[in-house]
Amino acid sequence: MSLTQLLIPAYTQMLKALSAWFEKAERQFSEDEIEALLSRRLADDMYPLSTQVRFVCLQAQEVVYRLKGEPMPDTLDALAKEGQMAGEQPGTISDARARIDETLSLLGSLPSDALDSGADQSVTISLPTGLKFDMTGEQYVRDWALPQFYFHLVTAYAIFRNQDVAIGKPDYVLHMFAYARPGTIPQGS
User: Fold this and answer.
1) Model-level pTM?
2) 101, pLDDT greater than 90
3) Long-range pairs for 139-146 at CB < 8 Å and ≥24 separation?
4) Euclidean distance between CA atoms 15 and 144, whole angstroms
5) Is 189's pLDDT higher than 60?
6) Dist CA 87 CA 92 (whole Å)
7) Going by C-beta distance under 8 Å and a sequence separation of 6 or more, which residues neighbour residue 176?
């Protein structure tokens, strides 16, 4: 399986799930309650939902530029800063949904082999603390890009659940229903 075939479908299906969680929350809560949801966090020392959404999108976009060997656009730096400041400036549900849509648009615009040539190239991750990681593109995908993406996605899911949004495991793996054997889906699911 190529890096493109691994990443683009995985990121796309999970970003669509994230968008669907917002849709469920919007049907369940008032507009004010929905906007307040963006400021919710699991623990005091964790980022709020608004940051988790931005970082999910950041991870999915960043991998594209790293594996294509292209410089990061200013928009990604802005997205990272927006995410870091989201505790004080959470934005709106429309902002969060726009970030998801922008990311889906970028991923959807890629050719079927867009990221494959990046498997053997050198990738450096520099953290704000000064720590740097050097790895190949394949190692970056396996050990950083996918874990970081899913960390922020699962944290967002946990915040939705913690705030009593009516979602469950089927909402997390919604994409799996495309593989369901006909006649085996329990009624009422």
Assistant:
1) 0.93
2) yes
3) 140/63, 140/66, 140/67, 141/3, 141/6, 141/7, 141/63, 141/67, 145/7, 145/59, 145/62, 145/63, 145/66, 146/7, 146/10
4) 18
5) no
6) 12
7) none
Output the pLDDT for position 88: 85
**Per 3-state DSSP, what percentage of the chain is helix, strand, and coil (rounded to 5)?**
65, 5, 30
What is the C-alpha to C-alpha distance for residues 119 and 63, in angstroms, rounded to an integer? 11
Q: Are 29 and 37 in contact (CB under 8 A)?
A: yes
User: 69: how many CB neighbours lie within 10 A of its CB?
Assistant: 12
Closest CA to 62 of 118, 139, 145, 129: 145
Helix (H) and strand (E) counts for the chain?
Answer: 8, 2
Instruction: Report how far Cα 145 is from the mean position of its chain's Cα atoms.
Output: 10
Instruction: Tell me if residue 10 falls in helix, strand or coil.
Output: helix
Residue type, 18: L
Q: Using an 8 Å Cβ cutoff, are 105 and 34 in contact?
A: no
Which pLDDT does position 1 carry in this prediction? 85
Q: Using one digit for the tens of pLDDT, what is the confidence trace for 6-29?
A: 999 999 999 999 999 999 999 999
